[in-house]
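Protocol step 4 of 5: obtain the predicted structure for the target chain.
Materials: sequence only (see below). No template structures provided, no constraints applied. The aim of this step is simply to have a reference model before the mutagenesis design in step 5. Sequence pasted as it appears in the construct record:
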Amino acid sequence: MIKNGLFTSESVSDGHPDKICDQISDAILDACLEQDPMSRVAIEAAIKNKTLFLLGEITSNAVIEPAEIARSVLREIGHEDERWGVEVSTLRVIEEIHQQSAEIGASVDGQETGAGDQGIMFGYAHAGLLNMMPLPIALAHALMERHLAFRTLSVGETIGPDAKAQVTFKFKDGRPVGLDTVVFSTQHAPDVTLDAVRELVYTHILSPVLQELLTPLVKVHINPAGSFTMGGPIADAGLTGRKIIVDSYGGAARHGGGAFSGKDATKVDRSGAYAARQLARDVLKRGWAKTCEARVAYAIGISKPVDISFETFGTETDGSVSNRYQKEGIDVAALMTPSSILHRLKLDRPIYRTTSNFGHFGHAGFTWEQRTLIEDKEGRDQSSLIISKDQPITSVVRRYKLSISTEEDNERLKTLLTMERLLLASYGEAGLSQMWKTSLEGMCKAHPYFGRHIRLEIINGLNI
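Step 4 output (structure tokens):
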């Protein structure tokens, strides 16, 4: 937990070499789950120059072509030709993919699903923001989402896919009191001047996201090292799972060390971290603390965690969190078994490519951000904070004819509103109205990232 002084978090773009690999790994996982929800996948990717390595284990009835899936991901990022360094048509793909170890399979796929590995996982929630995320990482992700939206426009065509954002905030007594420094570096075309790049980034990326936070006192560094024309895998090697702090809480909370991308839900490195985040959010929703870090540890092949504990950093309201769950009659250990997590969070669906950019936490479309640990008989959150039907109906509600009656509807609305704000900043009111009128398929093709979020809403059951 951040108390006093400065704290910094960073995020990276979808075209960063490590994030390219995360997306490829999760796209392969999704392709398997789409055909076979029981797929067992642990797939890694590594890329350098024009060579991509795919390695790992897949046990599935799905019939897929990993190399073609990887090429499709690169095309979506913008690597249609050599303009940004990688040309998909000349990419060399080396595969070393085998079935999951029979010994691991036997320990995991028994009568009660065992943990796919030993390890420790952390989940974190802080009451300062609506999405219960630390402010520095939330803003860093927002800058990277804006970067993606901007470079798809004609005015942003000179901005390349590889980029990083870093946000430094000043804190006092655990509260953010001011933005101190922003560092933003982005790949760009060789024929655009550094001054022009800095003007584009400041005007079209930093200002729309940071708004009133961006005062004259804020130190701003845009491409501080100078020109950045060579980026992506041509400049740096990429590897799946090398951005675990970007993927989680930006360093504001601990991380167990296990990467997320490319792993199915029996791998508790991923599912355990998602469930721990849900657990930390649940503590805050119950009003038991203002900040919570949930800790869980597993032994391979054993379903129940060997340890579950909580740290509330002195913000608890009345006694320990563990004791309060016991008084409520809630068996947290039973709720944190791999089978319970998989069922409760619906983790056997092809949702993972959407998680591989801009953090795995804080986005309302993900089930671990929507649901509480315990639901009533009708499947609704007990701790719902429902939007009142007396409130003005937003344009998004009208467009989607969404009935606000459950916490899930409320959370999905937040996702759609976030998407609308980003698209509005990118395309303007007239352009946005036109985009909503286009077909869903056309929308997905025109803007793959937002298209995937819309697809996630459909998978989650939203009737568009």
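Step 4 remarks: The longest strand covers residues 159-172. Residues 288 and 319 are 8 Å apart (CA to CA).
Proceed to step 5.
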